[in-house]
Amino acid sequence: MSESFKYDGQKGHGGEVHQTPEAADQIMTTAQGCPVHDDQNSLKAGKHGPTLLEDHIMREKIFHFDHERIPERVVHARGYGAHGYFETYDNFSDLTCADLFQRKGEQTPVFTRFSTVAGNMGSPDVARDVRGFAVKFYTKEGNWDLVGNNIPVFFIQDAMKFPDLIHAAKQEPDRGFPQAQTAHDNFWDFASLSPESVHMLMWAMSDRAIPRSYRFMEGFGVHTFKFVNSAGEEKYVKFHWKPKSGLQSVVWNEALKINGADPDFHRRDLWNAIESGDYPEWELGVQVFDQSFADQFEFDVFDSTKLIPEEQVPVQKIGKMVLNRMVDNFFAETEQVAFCTQNIVPGIDFTPDPLLQGRNFSYLDTQTKRLGGPNFTHIPINAPQCPMRHFQQDGHMAMHNPKGRVNYEPNSWPRDEYNPRACPAHGYKSSSEAIEGDKLRYRSETFADHYSQALQFYKSQTPVEQLHIQDAFVFELSKVQTPAIRERVVSHLLNVDEALAKGVAEGLGLTTLPQKAEAAMETRTDLKPSDALSIIKNAPESFKGRKLGIFCCDGADDDVLESLINSIRAEGAMVEIVAPTIYGITTRDGKRIEGQQKIDGGPSVLYDAVALVLAKEKADEVAAIPQAKDFVTDAHAHSKFIIYNEEAMPLIKEANLEDKMDAGYLSTLKADSDAIVRQLRALRFWER
Ligand code: HDE
To answer: What residues does 448 pair with on adjacent strands?
Structure first.
């Protein structure tokens, strides 16, 4: 080969040859700061190599790459976070001396991470699962982590059972599947042998476990905590997050399809909302009660498988959280954030809830493993935004290091910020509690009722939601291969509601009903339904923050499209154009509208409602696209509103829906677009 030919590894690969920096601050360096001359070719002995060990630049690059991963979270591995602030509504010093609740209008920075529980880091977002809802408040008196879920109760009553629960829920250890789902033998075997989980199972089989988006779900602290004011008065408190945009879930068949079409559905949703300035908000509510309420309440307030209905102790709103900034770097912030239930601040305290007590050990322990040492609080996302003064020192990756000679106390050196002392007046004081008794492994008898609140939850649902619960049990148990496990689950449901148990048994094809499971306590039927527990009863009656998918084609009517898009935007909602090609369409008047999705990649499951704005000359061609047919068929099956113009009738006919058109089909001929959008506020046409 001629000497004049110099192949640089880029020519012919479409890359720019020798991309050079335009300014001094664009020069690439090694991690040690040494400027790099060529980042694409290793250092070789001769033109064909071998590569030299001397190549410190390549060695450093590959060494660092090899160490990029840290252990994923043992649970809640799949998650997504955002920054924001919490604003206090008033002075709540009568309730708590927690600094962040003392001043009306005070803003406290927060970082919030939402997650699923069972799936590994790369699992799909819309798995049927509990969602984590963890908030780190960077208060002036230290970080307060409220590490909650989107369901107010939990599967188990004692932390001792947590490893078993999670082992059973995650992939089975021999085969390594199924991933991100509880629809398998091990989970239902464990659950059906742990009757305390029945209340939570009802929630997990409800639409709560398939939220439409993080933005449309509630959050709960689950445990009972304590508020303590400056006079030392204590109250019990349960924390609630209420989304300002109302509750919403998807239906199960839709969830299955979303996971194929867009496994990042919830991530993308939060990213798009925040990046477009539509900042999601949640109000923080508290249920505050005292010992006398706790004494007369039907259940033990330290039992995390029970909730306190809002009708019995109303939720008082004390502030709101606004998420308004995405992270700069996913790993640095969302992956490295270390929530710890034991991070509390003066004015808030724990209770003896045996689940909470166990968590207070687990979170610190797991962060040390995940983040590699005791100095994870030095990582910016975990560091308090108030001063830290103590004598802790050294360890891996120590970033905040004390100055001066003093690192112990008592000492007689001058006091300053590097020589702090504990303060009896302002320091964190655990609330006093008289405790006596023998050392023993024991489950309190007051934790023994496993079915009454499961029934109360079921009775609080609308018929549509009740049917979804029944269907979910049938779906999950149909994936269980061992008949005895399926029957054991039905035997528990017989203690909850006979019609539900029979419906599930029928769905499973059981010819005879099993015996009722032996119950430690008989199910109470006197608990009143609680409307707050239903999603549909708490729907927002607004289409704001939701998304309309408009399937259109060349020749579509400009007026129809334009007025629909304007009305949707006026509602504060989003629109996506779905077209036969990603190039988009040319309207009847010759206007070009870009497509955001090609029909194959933009199925109707990605939208809250759909519109079909087609054109006469293209109607038959479009009706022949199989994915276009699925678009309509799925929207119909998922009880979505379907807006259509007359030119879309051939597609509707092709989907065999002409005879099934109900009041959920909204004709652009019969109503103006504002009126149509008002109808979308119901979110779904459940009557279908
Ligand atoms: Fe967790 N949980 N958990 N958990 N949990 C973790 O901590 C644990 C429980 C929750 O976005 C782990 O950092 C025990 C209830 C959320 O980073 C670990 C018990 C509730 C997150 C852990 C529970 C939660 C976690 C794994 C039973 C709702 C994700 C990684 C006693 C109130 C936080 C990590 C994030 C994460 C332990 C039960 C919520 C292992 C032992 C109940 C939202 O420490």
So the answer is: none
- For residue 101 and ligand 1, the question of a CB distance below 6 A is answered with no
Choice among 37, 41, 48, 76 that is catalytic: 76
Mean pLDDT over residues 73-95, rounded?
98
> What domains are defined for the chain?
3-66 (4.10.91.20), 79-182+210-378 (2.40.180.10), 450-536 (1.20.1370.20), 541-680 (3.40.50.880)
76 noted as active-site residue: yes
Closest residue by Cα to atom 31, ligand 1, is 159
Query: Tens digits of per-residue pLDDT, 642-688?
Result: 999 999 999 999 999 999 999 999 999 999 999 999 999 999 999 99
C-alpha distances in angstroms, 171 versus 232, 483, 485, 528?
47, 20, 18, 38
Q: Is the CB of 149 under 6 A from ligand 1?
A: yes
Torsional sign, CA 557, 559, 565, 567: negative
Give the residue, by CA position, lying nearest to ligand 1 atom 8. Answer: 359
β 547-552/574-579 pair status: parallel
Residue whose tokens read 């406290």? 108
Residues 122-151, mean pLDDT to the nearest whole number = 98
**Residue 363 CB–ligand 1 contact under 6 Å:** yes
- Closest-CA residue, ligand 1 atom 14, reads 359
Residue 387 pLDDT > 50:
yes
- 147 CB less than 6 Å from ligand 1? yes
- Annotate 86-109 with three-state secondary structure: EEECCCCCCCCCCHHHCCCCCEEE
User: What is the CA 157 to chain-centroid distance, rounded?
Assistant: 23
The pLDDT, as a whole number, for residue 433 is 83
Give the number of the atom of ligand 1 that is nearest the alpha carbon of residue 77: 30
Kindly state if the Cβ of 371 falls inside 6 Å of ligand 1: no
Whose CA is closest to atom 9 on ligand 1?
359
Cβ-based neighbours of 549, under 8 Å, separated by 6 or more: 575, 576, 578, 597, 602, 604, 606, 607, 609, 610, 611, 631
pLDDT of residue 217: 98
Q: What is the pLDDT of residue 244?
A: 97
pLDDT for 454: 98
Atom of ligand 1 nearest to the CA of 304: 42
18 or 323: which carries more pLDDT confidence? 323
Q: Determine the pLDDT at residue 13.
A: 54
Over range 417-427, report the average pLDDT. 94
- Rounded to 10°, the helix 252-261/265-275 angle is 80
Q: 469 in helix, strand or coil? A: helix
pLDDT of res. 432? 82
pLDDT bin (cut points 50, 70, 90) of residue 4 is low
Per-residue pLDDT reduced to its tens digit, 388-415: 999 999 999 999 998 999 999 999 999 9
Ligand 1 pocket mutation, candidates 73, 222, 342, criterion most atoms within 8 A of CB:
73
Q: How far is the CA of 363 from the centre of ligand 1 (A)?
A: 7
First to last CA, the chain: 74
State in Å: Cα 340 to ligand 1 middle: 8
- Ligand 1 site, residue 134, Cβ cutoff 6 A: yes
Residues in the chain: 688
What pTM was estimated for this model as a whole? Answer: 0.96
Tell me what the pLDDT averaged over the chain comes to: 96
329 in active site: no
Give the whole-angstrom CA distance, residue 145 versus residue 134. Answer: 7
